[in-house]
Amino acid sequence: MKSTRRFRRSVILTILLGISLVILNKSLVFAQSAESSSLSAPQSSVKEPQVKVEVINPADSPVLITLTGVHDSHYFDDVQTIDFMLQNLSQKRITVYVPLLSSASLKEGSGIYKRYDFEPGKVMETALNLQRDKLKPDEKLFLSIDYVLFSDGTSWGPDSQKTSEYLSGSDEGTKYAIDQIRGLLKEKNKEALFGLLKLKHSGMNVEDPPGMDKTKSYNWQSGFRGGYHFLFWQLLPFDEKQELEAISCKLEKIEKQNKDSK
């Protein structure tokens, strides 16, 4: 009996000793790995200074800009992000506003921002991104509002980016696309309609839309292309097994949405 107990005790002690050695070995390996990692870790690059931004708020501006921060982009090393807040100071609903970054050597609009819920008094947060290579060292940027379009069709701003021309062309392009589809629906020409939709959705049609006035400005023509092709994109997805009535109903919904958003 005693010999059996001694044997069991020796087996248990052997197992415990083995486990201790394994744990100790892993600890040493981990310590070596951590030390090696810390020695080989690259030094963090020195960040470039943030760009200097000055806000311009004209006395008659319907939108108040408040700068909230300038920092490196979270996604790109060579991009600066400019955070700011906007407040609608007017008594009208704003449907489009265009912030503008400018300097002695730079004049870059941020594009068209459409906010159909920018009601009077409302405050919203937004941001602009700018590549560093477009800036000269120690050059100051000026942040302002270039254009504002109200829900009643009136506008405000210098419109240096010619946004009004783009929007005018976009409206005409959308209208032309709707009329084109309506004509095929009226003729009940399913083959021609679905052939047109398939061509637009394939992305293979790079020609200028029919009906575009090429005597108009570059911005107007760009808007016409955008409005025309976006209308077809809004009809996605479509199924060739659909009846024409389904396309007609979808088109009516799009027309209503576009009308309500203005």
Number of helices: 5
Into how many domains do the coordinates divide? 3
CATH architecture grouping of the largest domain: Sandwich
Distance from N terminus to C terminus (CA atoms, Å) equals 96 Å
Overall strand count:
9
Low-pLDDT regions: 1-46
The CATH superfamily of the largest domain is identified as Lipoprotein YajI-like
Outline the biggest β-sheet. Answer: 6 strands, mixed
Mean pLDDT: 79
Order of helices and strands: HEEEEEEEEEHHHH
The structure class reads alpha+beta
Overall shape: it is elongated
Q: Do you know the CATH topology of the largest domain? A: Immunoglobulin-like
Would you spell out the secondary-structure blueprint of this structure?
Blueprint: H1 2-40, E1 52-55, E2 63-72, E3 79-88, E4 94-102, E5 107-109, E6 113-118, E7 123-131, E8 140-150, E9 155-156, H2 163-187, H3 190-202, H4 218-234, H5 244-260
Parallel strand pairs: 1-8
Antiparallel strand pairs: 2-3, 3-7, 4-5, 4-6, 4-8, 8-9
